[in-house]
Amino acid sequence: MGWIRRRPDRPTPWRAGYRGPDGREHSRAFGRKVDAKRWLRDELQKQDWGLWVDPSAGAVRFEEYAEEWFQGLVLKPKTIAGYRSLLDSRILPTLGTVELRRINLDFLRAWVAAMAADGLSASRMGQAKRVVSAVLAQAVDDGLIGRNPAETVKVPKTRERHQRYLTAEQVTELADAVEQRMRGGAQLVKLLAYGGPRWGEAVALRSNNVNVLRRHVHVRESATLVNGKLVWGPPKSHRSRTIVIPAFLIDEMAPVLSGDRLVFTSSTGQPLRSPKLLAKGVEARGGRRWPWRPSAARPATHCRQSGDLGRSKRESSAKNAGPFLGTDHSRSVHTSVRG
Asked: What is the DSSP letter of 10?
């Protein structure tokens, strides 16, 4: 049970209190009786629902706890770099000095509203909210707060990105244009189009992961550009998979396959770093510039979204790809084209 007492000689005359599950008395002063009643009711409900924690346990600043959480992450380097960027730019400047116990639903709603007012994209706001929620979820597990207020915070929905698909003729035209800039560029474009790997997976493809006789490409590694450096690791899903490619493409790739060398490299033999080589200044024959550009973040030449380019094979050019769209092809499908 709890109690409310009036102390007329104090600036905040109403004091509410109760004895917690820890056997200690907890109290707080209020200027109005109605506020004291509301606080006491909430604290007693937390006990009934098993959500009560020692109020002093959450007297840790968000930035201190978030840094401990961050140091314990075991994720891919690109994901960790993304979290670091969100913490530094969007989360810690607002929440950093606030104690965990003071972060409530109203506070987080105001934080989301401020990001929206700054013109931040819905996708970025959603990512920031997920990071905050992950930090607070661990604080709940550690017994520092009773519940995670970020779980119910609403952020704007991300608009579905409009897909633009290439015909077989456009794939060939793009492949020819890229080949003029980089030897082997035509095969790279066709692999992205007819096989559908992510850009980093194509960059990391080695000759010994290509089975010429069965027309199989085994996706077992990915290369991701993080803070200006290529980081090598497993595919995004942490699971390898097999892609079946058409006969004409394996015939084009076969002559350059050797040992465990990378299939696609720069003119100096170095790993490819950026998909800009497919987008920057690429012009089709006859002087016509491609209508899709990196700034529009659309398929075709912006191969950070190489899965979109790959979908051209399924949507518009299957008839020219050879007999590769059989049951084996289902193994090439991945759940996300990002990263």
From this structure: S
* CA 81/CA 79 separation, integer angstroms: 5
In a shared domain, residues 78 and 203? no
Cα torsion angle, 227, 76, 128, 42, sign: negative
- How many whole angstroms separate alpha carbon 90 and alpha carbon 232? 28
3-state secondary structure of 27: strand
Sequence letter at residue 6: R
Beta bridge partners of 271: 265
Give 246-280 pLDDT, tens digit per residue: 999 999 999 999 999 999 998 888 999 888 766 65
First to last CA, the chain: 54
Residues 177 and 107 in one domain: no
Q: What is the pLDDT of residues 158-180, one digit of tens each?
A: 887 777 788 888 889 888 888 88
Same domain, 37 and 99: no
Asked whether residue 183 falls in the same domain as residue 326, the answer is: yes
Q: Are residues 279 and 181 both part of a single domain?
A: yes
Asked if 333 contacts 196 with a C-beta cutoff of 8 angstroms, the reply is yes
Contact between 206 and 218 under an 8 Å Cβ cutoff? The reply is no
